[in-house]
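STRUCTURE REQUEST FORM
Protein name: Catalase
Source organism: Silvanigrella paludirubra
Requested output: structure tokens
Priority: standard
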Amino acid sequence: MLNFTLKKTDLILLSITSIYGISFSINSYAQNKNNILTKPDRLLEIGEEQIDSNEDNIAEQISVMFQEIVKKGYASRPGDARPARRDAHAKHHGCAIGKFIVENKLPIEFQKGVFATPKEYKAFIRFSNGSFDLKADKIPDAHGMAIKLLGVNANLLKETESNGENNTQDFIMIDNPVFFMRTAESYISLFMAQSKGPEALKEWMKDHPYEAKLAFETLNKINPSPISAQYWSQTPYKLGENSAFKFTVKPCKNQTFITIPENKRGPDYLKETLAKHLKKKNACYEFFIIPQKDSMAMPIEDSTIEWTTTWNGKNNIFKVATLILPKEQQPDSDKSIKFCEDLSFTPWHGTEEMRPLGGVNRVRKTVYLETSNLRHSLNNAKQALPTEEIWNSFLLK
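Status: completed
Returned output:
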């Protein structure tokens, strides 16, 4: 996942920045004069992208940075069976299986890609911490949920970076509604500041107060269970030819969660919680889409802006599917953990009608592919390819 993790001391700096009264406005471009998106010379259409001419170069720079993170982790874990971990979301809490059930009688404008017809898809679900470090779950962090649907026969992306995986749809999500960087280019300045030490990071935060606040909000979460959180795509996607959407999953209503008392939580309590819950109980999520209604109020290229769930006084969030994680599975088994470790998730596994949009997603195409290839190469492992047979083998009975 194209994410960024700050050290605990960096989070303290972000906290201090927030406490001492810097004024933040989520919808104001004026907060950061050094990082304003180039204004289009005309009003953009719904779903229209604004591509930076230097974007390929930026993607390669970021890819090199993240590959260095993978190499550093590899060198520090010589006894690990899989020493090279992901550049972010390195620690997962388990690999679960689920059933993704598309709703009947969706409005015609939503019947695109995997939502084109009512169908039940088998799915693999990976829950994770956001950090590239394998740190304790008690330490604040972002958290991820990645869903991979199997048996997707729609018009698949022609540019998919599949490495042989060509019939899936991935949904990549974080437990925060917005990304904390306007553009992929902003990553480079933050990486450089952090590498120079606390004083440089302080200066970066002074120059980027808006992003600093969002980073703190994103990376400062402690969850009682991976299942109980709401997750968001943060970035947008096409929805057919002339529309775009973001998505979110929420736990179904009237659901109770098996948790571990706070005073008894160990360093891997999220993994333990997930396993305890799915051994005895189903988990249920509702999958919603949020359509783009206005290209300025809901920009494609600025993922720090949350897309509103109401528009002109009307509802603008629509349920399109239900995800059920069946009980009597063991997401923390050695087999499950190994499979998820070798599995790849990317927004670019999917269909043409639901193509990833925006600069962050476009950069992800290069970053995800190159870091995934490096990780598998260092581990002398092949990319795991999901099948229904593997899905069926995850059930205990």
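Reviewer notes: The radius of gyration is 20 Å. The first strand starts at residue 92 and ends at 102.
Form closed.
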